[in-house]
């Protein structure tokens, strides 16, 4: 009897070790498969000309990088236009993603701000970065005069604090990349017509639809870096 009990105990230890080893192998296989899928996905984006290395340097997670692929091939122009006769850099921006803001309560900055060399409202034209369709237009207490364009791939581009519109836009209207939407300004932070509460600038927001969110915000900073050399300038 003693021998039988010992054999059963030894056998039980062996089975438990075998099961533990099997679970470990399955876990490693799952992790490896996930890593390969992620690597393949990012490689696919690179093959499409999307600068994933730049996004990775900004410590944007891989799952977020894949979301940029929704609209990246729609991008054509930097959103602000300068004067053709002016030499040197005319616009400045920094990575202010998720910086703290306090108007209408504590919140995080879901966008990137673009400032002009000339701190003048109504001075710089604001362009559509992509082809698309007007989804929203008009006044918002936070964004002032704003317009939202949905690109063919599905990105939603939000242009805020405009001093005025280039014309009377209608929802559902088709927009061409490079078309003037309005002018960089300082509207917002109050009832319609409020202006002058901050330095004139363009607030750019970029959103995509996901399985869990209607408007998932992405950091526009790498998009602006990518488009810096695609700036349209005019004589005016």
From TrEMBL:
Residues in M23ase beta-sheet core domain copies: 108-210
Gene3D superfamilies per UniProt: Glucose Permease (Domain IIA) (2.70.70.10)
Pfam family for this entry, one: Peptidase_M23
Highest rank taxon of the organism: Bacteria
Protein name: M23 family metallopeptidase
Protein source organism: Blautia hansenii (Ruminococcus hansenii)
């Amino acid at each position: 009897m003693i021998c039988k009990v010992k054999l059963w105990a030894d056998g039980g230890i062996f089975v438990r070790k075998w099961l533990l080893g099997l679970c470990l192998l399955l876990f490693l296989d799952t992790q490896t498969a996930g890593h390969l899928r992620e690597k393949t996905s990012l490689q696919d984006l690179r093959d499409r000309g999307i600068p994933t290395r730049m996004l990775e340097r900004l410590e944007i997670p891989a799952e977020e990088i894949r979301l940029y692929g929704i609209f990246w091939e729609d991008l054509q122009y930097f959103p602000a236009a300068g004067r053709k006769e002016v030499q040197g850099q005319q616009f400045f921006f920094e990575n202010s993603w998720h910086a703290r803001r306090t108007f209408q309560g504590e919140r995080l900055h879901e966008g990137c701000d673009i400032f002009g060399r000339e701190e003048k409202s109504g001075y710089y034209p604001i362009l559509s970065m992509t082809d698309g369709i007007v989804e929203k237009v008009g006044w918002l207490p936070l964004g002032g005069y704003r317009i939202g364009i949905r690109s063919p791939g599905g990105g939603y581009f939000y242009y805020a604090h405009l001093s005025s519109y280039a014309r009377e836009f209608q929802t559902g209207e088709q927009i061409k990349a490079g078309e003037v939407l309005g002018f960089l300004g300082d509207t917002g932070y109050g009832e319609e017509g409020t202006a002058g509460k901050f330095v004139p600038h363009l607030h750019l927001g970029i959103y995509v639809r996901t399985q869990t969110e209607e408007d998932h915000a992405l950091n526009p900073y790498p998009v602006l870096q990518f488009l810096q050399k695609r700036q349209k300038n005019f004589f005016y």
